[in-house]
UniProtKB/TrEMBL annotation:
Family annotation (PROSITE patterns): HTH_ARAC_FAMILY_1, HTH_ARAC_FAMILY_2
Gene3D superfamilies the UniProt entry points to: Homeodomain-like
Keyword Transmembrane helix in record: no
UniProt xrefs under InterPro entries: AraC-bd (IPR003313), AraC_XylS_family_regulators (IPR050204), Homeodomain-like_sf (IPR009057), HTH-like (IPR037923), HTH_AraC (IPR018060), HTH_AraC-typ_CS (IPR018062)
Full protein name: AraC family transcriptional regulator
Keyword DNA-binding: yes
Organism of this sequence: Cohnella hashimotonis
Region entry Disordered, spans: 1-23
PANTHER family in the cross-refs: HTH-TYPE TRANSCRIPTIONAL ACTIVATOR RHAS (PTHR46796:SF13), HTH-TYPE TRANSCRIPTIONAL ACTIVATOR RHAS-RELATED (PTHR46796)
Keywords from the UniProt entry: Activator, Cytoplasm, DNA-binding, Transcription, Transcription regulation
Domain HTH araC/xylS-type: 188-286
Length: 292
């Protein structure tokens, strides 16, 4: 036998010819520079902003208008928006509506990542309320805030998974997409109808006639989009309007009850206290005390 010895790299090692000692082993794309949950304060908005990186914006609760790339998107709970570096965009919250979102800002450094092959010119990537993708985005934000390379690697992996799943969603048949958009438009129509006619005796039959959908279907889909059933949303709108009237006028509780759709002040009082934990009279008294 020859006495010549063969060189073997140590177990788990890398031959020196393949090593890249000048490159940190934990720095690779996608580079996440921001991942947070944002609860917009009342009246908050962003006008005509551009970003230098890619952005994913996911609506956790509420709704907002989102103009980007020359298009206006009326986003609701579960919508995933995407825009590219340099694209002019705005985020416009709606009066009386909450807006809670996940914002993910990232880039690929000098790497030529084929993002256009994933999304083309699209901005609205789909609605993912209650899906696994939603859970991944929430976990990504949590991991981003944790120290250590393990958390960073997991966050980067989840971002890549989210991009891949969103791209798959965009490749669904045009028929399915068209149906979903049509249903979403009808749900927005119902939401606007409730907001405009909250002082009236809004019934499920009215909503069925407006949307051309069955009662049960409306209830399920409305809650999926907005987090509340139509009647729960009606109650929420009435409470907000009652608070506004208490703040802006000197009307009595009975007059406010009537203006927000309750002929019986006692029924209104029970509802208001059940939903808010305080009566409207106590709410008004607290306001007076605060002002003094």
């Amino acid at each position: 036998m020859s006495d010549e010895k063969r060189e073997h790299p140590a177990s788990g090692g890398t031959p020196s010819s393949e090593a890249s000692p000048d490159v940190p082993d934990f720095q690779f794309p996608p580079y996440i520079t921001l991942a947070h949950l944002f609860d917009a304060p009342k009246g908050w908005a962003i006008h005509n902003r551009t970003m230098g990186q890619y952005v994913l914006q996911y609506v956790v609760e509420g709704r907002a208008d989102y103009p980007v790339g020359g298009h206006m998107y009326a986003t609701v709970k579960g919508d995933l928006l995407f825009h590219r570096p340099g694209e002019l965009h705005s985020i416009l919250t709606l009066e009386g509506e909450p807006y809670i979102c996940l914002s993910l800002v990232f880039h690929f450094g000098d790497h030529d990542f084929p993002i256009s092959q994933l999304f083309g010119d699209s901005h609205l990537l789909g609605n993912y309320a209650g899906t696994e993708l939603e859970k991944k985005l929430i976990r990504l934000v949590h991991l981003y805030r944790q120290p250590g390379i393990s958390s960073q690697l997991q966050a980067q992996g989840l971002l890549l998974e989210a991009l891949g799943e969103a791209a798959t969603g965009l490749n669904r048949t045009s028929t399915v997409s068209t149906v979903e958009e049509r249903i979403k438009a009808k749900l927005l129509l119902l939401q606007n109808h409730i907001r405009e006619h909250y002082a009236e005796n809004v019934q499920h039959s009215d909503l069925e006639q407006i949307a051309g959908l069955s009662r049960n279907y409306i209830i399920v889909q409305f809650k999926r989009q907005f987090g509340l059933t139509p009647m729960q949303y009606l109650t929420w709108v009435r409470i907000q309007k009652a608070r506004e009237l208490a703040l802006q006028t000197n009307l009595s509780v009975s007059e406010i009850a009537n203006l927000v759709g309750y002929a019986d002040v006692h029924t209104f009082g029970k509802m208001f206290k059940k939903k808010t934990g305080t009566s409207l009279s106590q709410f008004c008294s607290a306001l007076v005390t605060y002002k003094v």
